[in-house]
Request: fold
Amino acid sequence: MGEVYPLPGVGDTFDDVRDGGRRMRVSVYADRGMVVLSLWSGVSCRASFRLAAADAERLRALLESPAATAPEPPVSSCG
Reply:
């Protein structure tokens, strides 16, 4: 990947539920009109995605939707 920069004033990191070695970094660059999502394995950036700031609201709405926050129904062990 490219050079690693410190998180901007607005940003955060999130651990992957599978293990502690994987993380997602979210960096907001309001001056550039984008949000960068980068996927990390240890200290190595494995992938990045530049999301237009205009689409960030749509992503937020999706994550807050009832379907995204509702628990999954239990799976029957028979039949």
User: Anything to note?
Assistant: The first helix runs from residue 53 to 64. The longest strand covers residues 44-52. DSSP finds two helices and four strands in the chain. Strands lie at 10-15, 22-29, 34-41, 44-52.
